[in-house]
Amino acid sequence: PAELWANVLQYLYFDEVLTCTSVNNFFLHDVTHQTKHLFVRSGESMDVAPAVVERFACVENVDIYLISDSAEGLDNKFYLDSVALQTATPFISRLPKLQWCFIGGVHMEYDLYDADRELEYGLRSNEKYAGLIQAVCGAYRRGTLSD
User: Fold this and answer.
1) What is the SS3 assignment for 34?
2) The whole model's pTM is what?
3) CB-CB contact of 91 with 55 (8 Å)
4) Cβ(9)–Cβ(59) below 8 Å
5) At what angle are helices 123-142 and 82-93 packed, to 10 degrees?
6) Torsions phi, psi for 101 (to 5 deg)
7) For residue 59, what are the contacts with CB-CB under 8 A and spacing of at least 6?
8) Rounded Cα gap, residues 57 and 64, in angstroms
9) How confident is the model over 95-114, as pLDDT tens digits?
10) Distance of CA 65 to the CA centre of its chain
11) Average pLDDT over residues 129-137
């Protein structure tokens, strides 16, 4: 049943979910409508057509990880996903049943990213992160995010 597969998908990252749900019409339509929780690890995965996001109309919780640790973890550097700064607000705005969203977090999969799209986490990137939070709050105030 679709509910079972939707429960399995909530343990995958969104880019993996997109790959899995493109297998056939059952996954593309039935399973995506049963999915309640998404984990996002890259801005590129949120940069999809609105119709793709709208398949996940029943999603209630989203975790967006946009801070990554350095590849070796020895230099104590963190990097902010600059693409996610641009794609997060439009992405969550297309989820009508969204009740909870976490934006931040560190994950250890630095090698997934192109270094050109990341900012070393510091004063400049902190201001950009603050801009993202302001954009999300503004979208909520305008009513483009679900209550």
Assistant:
1) helix
2) 0.81
3) no
4) no
5) 10
6) -140, 130
7) 35, 36, 37, 38, 95, 97, 98
8) 17
9) 999 999 998 876 655 444 44
10) 7
11) 83
List pLDDT tens digits, range 23-40: 899 999 999 999 999 999
- pLDDT band (50, 70, 90) for residue 132: confident
Asked whether the predicted pLDDT for residue 71 surpasses 60, the reply is no
Rounded CA gap, 124 and 51, in Å?
A: 33
Torsion of Cα atoms, 98 then 17 then 34 then 51, to 10°: 70
Compute how many other C-beta atoms are within 10 angstroms of the C-beta atom of residue 45. 21
Q: What is the mean pLDDT of the chain?
A: 82
Beta bridge partners of residue 130, listed in sequence order: none
CA-based nearest residue to 107, from 62, 58, 66: 66
Q: Hey, what are 16's tokens?
A: 């993996």
- DSSP, collapsed to helix, strand or coil, labels residue 66 as strand
